[in-house]
Design brief:
globular, 3-stranded antiparallel β-sheet, DNA polymerase, domain 1, 3 strands, mainly alpha, hpI Integrase, Chain A
């Protein structure tokens, strides 16, 4: 089975072009699956049936794994068995009649327009750090990028004349995201004044740099966001992904169509983007409750 897992991972890398982190997650989940089968004395792929897979799912639940994580494990197993069947390495797919556990989709936390404005305005003072942090927050909010995409940006990814950014997302898929005047001007100011102070190697084309002149880390981005959220007296629990959620929600609230938001976020499936319509519905419900006489 270990050999088949390696062949499957190679397939994901070559045929599907998945990101390294995604393949790592598949490998981790399938290694766990393989260990469970060994504990049951199952060595032959064709000896795996629906019952033993369900036992594996229940074992994950007993271990305290969240429903979402169990569903992710099942998705990896399903893809693995479909691959085996297609490559004629197995006679049948035992997962075909197994449904994923029901997942209640949690509405993501978002900031209001006022909260987002306060947070950006909290970036005050002088020096390269203030200029850099303001550029990071403005561009993050203006583009809705993932934090991993933001830290990987290169200088030539930003087109200051036209006002767009070229972003490489999951599966190394490239997309173009328009950015507004404010974000464009703030990033340009950073590039002209703060970045030259930070850069130590002229060959380093990374856009956002740390004080050591290296690519800024995701952890540093998180600290920046938390710091200015506290300065703005925002009580919500904020993570880097909160700004991505906020970007999408504000676009939809102001009339953007779902397909355009999907493209800007880089979602392969529009159902992933539809979660933000739930956010808008929750906002409408809260407004109704607050202002309607019978709310």
């Amino acid at each position: 089975m270990e050999k088949y897992i390696e062949e499957f991972i190679d397939f994901l890398a070559v045929e599907r072009g998945l990101a390294d982190n995604t393949m790592f997650a598949y490998r981790r989940d399938l290694n766990k699956y393989e260990l469970f089968m060994k504990s049951r004395g199952i060595k032959d792929i064709d000896s795996i049936d629906k019952t033993v897979i369900m036992d594996f799912m229940y074992s994950l639940k007993k271990d305290g794994l969240a429903v979402k994580s169990i569903s992710r494990n099942l998705a990896a197993i399903k893809m693995f068995h479909r691959f085996l069947l297609r490559e004629r390495l197995a006679q049948e797919d035992p997962t075909i009649l197994i449904d994923a556990p029901k997942i209640w989709t949690r509405v993501p936390d978002v900031l209001s327009v006022d909260e987002m404005t306060r947070m950006i305005k909290a970036v005050k003072g002088k020096g390269w750090q203030v200029v850099r942090d303001r550029a990071i927050l403005e561009l993050f909010y203006a583009s809705g990028m993932r934090v991993s995409e933001l830290v990987d940006l290169k200088m030539d990814n930003m087109n200051f004349e036209i006002g767009y950014i070229r972003c490489v997302g999951k599966g190394k898929k490239e997309r173009i995201i328009p950015v507004g005047k404010t974000a464009k001007e703030t990033v340009l100011r950073y590039c002209e004044t703060a970045r030259p102070v930070l850069v130590k190697d002229s060959l380093n084309k990374t856009l956002f740099l740390s004080r050591l002149g290296k690519k800024i880390s995701r952890q540093s981005i998180w600290k920046i966001i938390k710091f200015y959220a506290q300065k703005a007296n925002i009580k919500k629990t904020i993570k880097p992904h909160t700004l991505r959620h906020t970007f999408a929600t504000h676009l939809l609230e102001h009339g953007a169509d779902l397909r355009s938001v999907q493209e800007m976020l880089g979602h392969a499936d529009i159902s992933t983007t539809q979660i933000y319509t739930h956010v808008d519905k929750e906002r409408l419900k809260s407004i109704h409750k607050q202002f309607h006489p019978r709310g």
